[in-house]
Design brief:
- By secondary structure, the chain is mainly alpha-helical.
- The chain is 69% helix and 0% strand.
- It is built from 3 helices and no strands.
- The mean pLDDT is 83.
Length: 62
Amino acid sequence: MAFTLSALVLFGVLLALLMRYRAVSAGAAIVALLFGFYLARSGAAPSVDHIMTALRDAVPGN
C-alpha cells in the first residue's frame, strides 16, 4: 500500500518537532515560516519546485 505525503505536511511536522524538542525557538520557526511564504511568492518558486520534484523522483520506490 502506497500513499503520498505533501511536502508542506512533512516540513510542518519537522518544524513542529524541532520546536517541541527546543532545537529551534518559536521566533526562528516564525522566520522559517515567513521565509517559505515569501519564497513561494517569488520568481524562485518554480526552480525550488523543480528541484524538489527531481529529489522526489531520485528516491527509489516512487
